[in-house]
Amino acid sequence: MALQRFWLQIAAFLVLVWAGVGVVMWVTEDSVFSPDKTLALMAEAPWLEDENLSEPKRKAYLDKVISSVLKLDFSQRNQMREDGLETMERFTKSLTDEEKGVYVGRTVEENFKAVMKGLEKLPAEDRRRIIGGIQREMKKKASKNPEMQMMLDQDAASFEKNFTKDMGLFFKEAPLSMKLEMAPMLEGMQGRMQGMRVR
After folding, report:
1. Which residue has the higher pLDDT, 160 or 108?
2. pLDDT-based confidence at 19, cuts 50/70/90?
């Protein structure tokens, strides 16, 4: 009888623990972000179904999407791009110019500022290697976006010098479409720079 009671107490305890885990998971569901959830938010943007959605509702939903994007780490953002490029493109194309500016300003431009600060702090050899990678990435994108070509027609040394000096101005004046195209490159660079600092 005592052994049976002992097993009943253990079973009751385990039921309570798992019930607690379930409640915590349910309560924190909205606080956990993943590439899949972020892509789902993009795919379910209410204005895709209702073109007459009010501006405050659009703004609130866009804020929700941006918050979700910002809470993803570099590998998650990369995974999101690999798994849902079409969804991301459909979402960004559905934004008004003003909304695109907000989206880029809060996601892409923050990465750009972090990359530029990081580049300034790197040793010259590491900076040269990273900027060489940037130039290679930009050359791949240049075929789709001729506006990038002006910086790429330079030799590597000139590119490095002008990149660190003029990139802020270049990025500031670049069209939103170019900034969106540069997002994966900037996120990748920021991740690599953080890895260099850890070494």
Report:
1. 108
2. low
As a three-state string, the secondary structure of 61-114 is HHHHHHHHHHCCCHHHHHHHHHHHHHHHHHHHHHCCHHHHHHHHHHCHHHHHHH
Tokens representing 98 are: 């003003």
- The percent of residues above 90 in pLDDT, for the chain, comes to 17
Residue 156 and residue 163: Cα distance in Å, rounded?
A: 10
Contact, 133 vs 196, CB < 8 A?
A: no
Contacts of 153 (CB under 8 A, 6+ apart): none
Query: The pTM is what?
Result: 0.62
Query: Among positive and negative, which fits the CA dihedral 192, 155, 178, 90?
Result: negative
Distance CA 189, CA 158 (A): 20
What residue spans define the domains of the chain? 34-106, 107-199
140-157 per-position pLDDT tens digit = 766 665 656 665 665 666
Sign of CA dihedral 192, 193, 194, 197: positive
The rounded Cα 191 to chain-centroid distance in angstroms is 11
pLDDT of 40 above 90: yes
